[in-house]
Design goal:
With 482 residues, the chain is α+β, with helices and mostly antiparallel strands. The chain has 2 domains: 230 residues, no CATH class; 246 residues, C8orf32 fold (Roll). It is 17% helix and 41% strand. The strands form 4 sheets. It has a 15-stranded mixed β-sheet. A 5-stranded mixed β-sheet has the order 16-26-17-19-18, with no helix packed on it. α4 packs across α7, α5 packs antiparallel against α7 and α6 packs across α7. It is elongated. The protein starts with a helix and ends with a strand.
Length: 482
C-alpha cells in the first residue's frame, strides 16, 4: 500500500510544461518549452488536486518551478501533499541546484541543495530540525520535471530507451529510471502525441503523452486510475479558488503568503500599508471597503487599509448602483421567506444600518459552524448551520440585502498571526455612504485592517482570477499602525 500511495502522489513531481500542438513531428528539441502551464490531477475521474509548472531561461540553463496540492484516498488510506519546488538546470537539463518545500501527510520539510563533482549536498529542515546529507552518483542527475523532456532533447526514435538518474525530494535519494519511447500515439481524447513510458513507480506503468514541443499532454498511472492532464487555467480557477478559501485544506501550504516582516498582534492593528509583488497586472485594482490600491511598479501594487487610508479616499461613488446590491442572486437568496423573516427579527428595535449590520454579522458567526467544506447557498446553510468563510459571507449578504442594506461578496487575504496571509471571503455593506468591510466568519464590523480585498463576486467565474496570483505573490509590510 505504501508503494501505491507513493505512486499516487509522486506523479505531480514529474510533469513537464503543457498544451497540445497541431501536429506530431518529433524532431530533436534545442530547448524545453518556455511557458507556464496548469494541470488537473484526477483519481478515478474525480479531481483531487492541481499542479502549476513554469519553465524559464536562466544563466547557462533553465529554471523549472512547480507548485501544487493533492488530496486523495485509496482503499481506506489517505495521502495529502502540497509542494513548491524550484530546480536550476543546465542547457542539457542536468540538475545544478534546488529548493523544495513540501508537506506530506502533515509533515513539513524544506530541502535545498547544490550539485558539484557528482555529489549532491543537501540541507534539510523538518519540524525545526536541520540535517545535512551528501548523495554521490556517477554521470548526471536530473529533476523529475525533466524526465519527459529528456528523450525529445536527444533522440525520440521509437524503440529508444534511456536510463536516467533522477533526484527524488520525498525520499531524498537518487533513483534510476528507465524512459522508453513507444512511438506516435494519440491521447485518449485524440490529440496527436508521442507516447513515452517510464518505471518511476514500481510494479505499475506510467504512460506519458507529449507533443512535438515537449509539452506533456497527459500522464496515466495504473491504466488511468490516476490521471494528470493539461488544462486551461480558467478551467482550474474556480476549483483552486474554492479549496484556497477553505483554508484548512492542503491548499493551505500552497496558498499561504508570508509577510516580511511578520505582523504581530494583528487584531490590534488600526492601519496597514503593504506592497504586493508578483501581481498580475491584468487584474483590476479594487478600491473602497476601507482600502486603497495603486500600482507601484511592474507586477507590484501598494495596498493601504484602515487608518492608513487617506480620509478623502473613503467617500464612495457606488451609491448610484446600490440597487444592484439589494437584489437576490444565485446562492444569495435574499428574497427567501426564511431569510426575510430572520433579517426582520434581527433588525427589530435597532437604529441605523450599522447597528443592524453588526447584529446580522454576529448572528451569522454564531449560527454557522465553521467547516472546511462550503455549505452552499444562504438558504442551504441557514438550514444546515455548516459552512466555511464563503458560506458565512453568502448568508450574511443575503440577510443584509433582505434588511435593505446594499451588500456585496468579496474575497482576498487575511492575516493569521504566526503564519501569514491566507485566502478568505467576507462582505462589504454600504453604511452611511461608505462601503465597510464586514467579516461574519470572525464577527468583525468593520473587519480588521489585514483584510486585503482582491476579488469581488461570489460566482465561480468571479473566483477564477485567483489562479493568476495564487502561489506566486509576496507581501512586504511597509507600515503597521497600532
Amino acid at each position: 500500500m505504501r508503494i501505491v500511495l507513493r505512486t499516487l502522489i509522486a506523479i505531480i513531481l514529474t510533469m513537464a510544461a503543457v498544451f497540445p500542438a497541431a501536429a506530431a513531428q518529433y524532431k530533436k528539441l534545442d530547448k524545453p518549452p518556455l511557458s507556464e502551464r496548469w494541470f488537473g490531477i484526477y483519481l478515478d475521474k474525480e479531481r483531487v488536486g492541481f499542479y502549476r509548472q513554469a519553465i524559464s531561461e536562466a544563466p547557462d540553463g533553465y529554471r523549472m518551478e512547480g507548485d501544487g496540492s493533492v488530496r486523495m484516498k485509496v482503499m481506506g488510506f489517505s495521502k495529502e501533499a502540497a509542494m513548491r519546488e524550484t530546480y536550476m538546470v543546465g542547457k542539457d537539463l542536468a540538475l545544478r541546484s534546488f529548493e523544495v518545500e513540501q508537506n506530506i501527510n502533515g509533515t513539513a520539510s524544506r530541502l535545498s541543495g547544490k550539485v558539484a563533482n557528482n555529489i549532491i549536498r543537501i540541507k534539510s529542515v523538518t519540524n525545526g530540525r536541520t540535517t545535512e546529507k551528501q548523495l554521490k552518483y556517477k554521470g548526471e542527475v536530473y529533476p523529475g520535471p525533466a524526465l519527459n523532456l529528456y528523450p525529445l532533447m536527444r533522440d525520440a526514435t521509437p524503440g529508444k530507451t534511456y536510463t536516467i538518474l533522477t533526484f527524488d525530494p520525498e525520499e531524498v535519494k537518487v533513483k534510476e529510471v528507465k524512459v522508453s519511447v513507444l512511438g506516435a500515439d494519440n491521447t485518449p481524447d485524440s490529440q496527436p502525441a508521442l507516447k513515452l513510458r517510464n518505471n518511476l513507480y514500481p510494479y505499475v506503468n506510467n504512460d506519458i503523452w507529449v507533443d512535438d514541443k515537449g509539452n506533456t499532454l497527459l500522464e496515466s498511472v495504473r491504466e488511468g486510475l490516476v490521471i494528470t492532464r493539461a488544462e486551461n487555467p480558467k478551467q482550474l480557477g474556480s476549483f483552486v479558488g474554492d479549496v484556497a478559501l477553505a483554508k484548512k485544506d492542503l491548499i493551505y501550504d500552497f496558498s499561504l503568503v508570508r509577510a516580511e516582516p511578520p505582523i504581530y498582534n494583528s487584531k490590534k492593528l488600526t492601519g496597514l500599508s503593504v506592497e504586493i509583488s508578483g501581481w498580475n497586472d491584468s487584474l483590476p485594482l479594487l478600491q473602497e471597503g476601507g482600502q486603497t490600491v495603486e500600482k507601484s511598479g511592474e507586477g507590484k501594487i501598494a495596498v493601504k487599509t484602515g487608518r492608513a487610508v487617506p480620509e478623502q479616499a473613503e467617500k464612495t461613488k457606488a451609491a448610484a448602483t446600490r440597487e444592484d446590491y439589494l437584489k437576490p442572486a444565485e446562492k444569495i437568496e435574499s428574497d427567501a421567506p426564511e431569510i426575510v423573516a430572520k433579517a426582520k427579527e434581527l433588525a427589530a428595535g435597532r437604529k441605523g444600518a450599522e447597528e443592524i449590520a453588526k447584529a446580522l454579522a454576529s448572528w451569522t458567526s454564531d449560527w454557522l459552524r465553521d467547516t472546511v467544506e462550503d455549505g452552499g447557498g444562504a438558504v442551504a446553510s441557514f438550514k444546515s448551520r455548516n459552512g466555511n468563510c464563503q458560506t458565512h459571507a453568502r448568508l450574511y449578504t443575503a440577510l443584509a440585502r433582505a434588511a435593505g442594506i446594499p451588500t456585496r461578496f468579496v474575497s482576498g487575504l487575511v492575516y493569521l498571526d504566526g503564519k501569514g496571509f491566507l485566502y478568505h471571503s467576507w462582505a462589504e455593506s454600504l453604511l452611511d455612504g461608505r462601503w465597510v468591510a464586514i467579516d461574519p466568519t470572525y464577527d468583525q464590523v468593520p473587519a480588521d485592517p489585514t483584510h486585503l480585498k482582491l476579488l469581488e463576486g461570489h460566482l465561480p467565474e468571479d473566483m477564477a482570477p485567483i489562479i493568476a496570483i495564487i502561489g506566486r505573490i509576496h507581501i512586504k509590510v511597509l507600515e503597521a499602525m497600532y
